[in-house]
Structure prediction request, 640 residues.
Amino acid sequence: MVTMDIDYRKVGLKVGLEIHQQLDSPRKLFCFCPPRLIDREPDIRIVRFQRPTLSETGEIDPTAVKEFKKKKRIIYEMYADLCLYEIDEKPPELIDSYALETALLLARIFKMDIPDVLFVSRKQYLDGSVPGGFQRTVLVGLNGELTLSNGKKIRINQLCLEEDAARKIKETVSEVVFRVDRLGIPLVEITTSADLETPEEVVECALKIGAILRATKRVRRGLGTIRQDINISIRNGTRVEIKGVQYPEWFKPLIDNEIIRQLRLIEIATELKRRGVTKEEILNEKPIDVTYIFKKTNARFIRKAISCGEKVYAIKLPGFGGLLGKEIQKNKRFGKEFAERVKIVTGLAGIIHTDEIPAYGISEEERKGLFEATKADYQRDCVVFVVGPEHKVVDAIDEIKERAVLALEGPPPETRKANPDGTTSFERPLGGAARLYPDTDSPPIEITNNLLEKVSKIPFKFPWDMAREISQKYSLPYDEVYRIILSPWSQLFEDAIRRNVDPRLFMRAISIMTSLRRKGFDVSNISDEKLMTVMAKVSLGVISKEAMEGILEYLARNPNNTVDDAIASLGIQKVDEQTVRNYIKKLLQEKRSFVIERQKHAFKPLMGIIMKEFRGKIDGKIVARILEEELNKFLKSIQE
Prediction:
């Protein structure tokens, strides 16, 4: 990811966070099934289709409409040891009391207002991730706060207790497959207001909320148990939700790139207005069948599609000449925004526009033919065309027109997916209030004084207080301990201390894990138990500290192998001091002339040779001590 210098105050950056954390409850939120993923082939497959419905306000959510237009078949993979709730064939049970107590505890920690009565609502999801077409959610707390290190108070707008969705297994153009074992696992959704004004504030806020969640000792650990989304807006821009921010270092590049994207979309909107483009002008354009233009094209993919009976449809975008070729994200031009929408909704590969041809084997003559067929102006207009089955290209043209209309107002409100390179991709329009309506299957939940008193007795210690205690007890720098406590490693750190692992050794291991992840290794392949085993073997003297990096890299590459497999494969069984001393004595004799010439300056090159032989097999400090002793003896002997 590339970062850039931006004056965040000048652009009016406003960021809010949404953090979703699974809870470590004994059962699912609205049924009694165990809250765990099942690692075997499913027993049952169920096929369904979903359609949008009117909300309580008589509206249909645009997100639901967009999902419905995909016309995808939805397949649910089910297990015989789960109940019928997971496939929406039985009513919900009463809400899980442990999950409710955890949500109330968090509301108290964030100093939130807790209603006297809680109501279960339905939040519509038509992407198929919930078989019933809606997720059950409960608003537990409002108007909380969190203080950052600079003294700034960040408002926590709301805290909801809700059920997790099914997990997506695979997706094609025509169907999507979900497994329902994850469905119903309790989670909390914590939403901040857009009070965060720099990436640094966003990172600190996310880390603090995550640390507080883990400090309750009532949340699940591991890959996929916590998910972070960010809502970004700038002055004259709009709110865009970016989903799936996996790591803290992703925040700044994603925020920076979204700022640049919105600024450039604002520039495009300004230019369109300067050119006098109107919504009506765009909507009046009709799709034109231009298949005949490409009957003898040199673009093989178009020729092949036509031979299979597919069509080429084009539409004029009045006043858009030269704009679809404008870069709005790194290596992403404005035309990509149209292409992503077409791909998401229709499943077609994308679009082609006249700002980027001649290209793809499309000739200048064919480009002229597109302008003539659509009656477009060479200087002012842009022509976009799509290749595919006729019903799909018609839908694609509708998406192109919709995105062109949105361009008149600047960046549209939408949900976008975070990409590892710091860019984002379109997912769907931003959902609104029309998604929510009451759940008539669930009774109201009374919050009694007895329940609140029970919650107040749940033990809890703020992460920064834990960091202070650990740093004082083990004489460690507070900032380093605090950094670990704020990280996802905090609970494992406490476990390691309870197992008498040296905290310094743990910090070294986590530093190695972070470095490996940044190099592209999948460190999620290294289980907590494997990491603890590596540290235990170092503590017992079986392997050296220097061996940890090689072992952890091996485990990241080979997730099915054990720590002992790594040690055997890398040949890094620890050697004793006498073996190293004998090797050094022999080396000094072999390098006798060099040592006599360089004297004590021979230490560093000799150390390099020795560590090449013994790296990972013995602590480097021990090697340095033995070499210094033997080098002094050698130099003294030749002087005598």
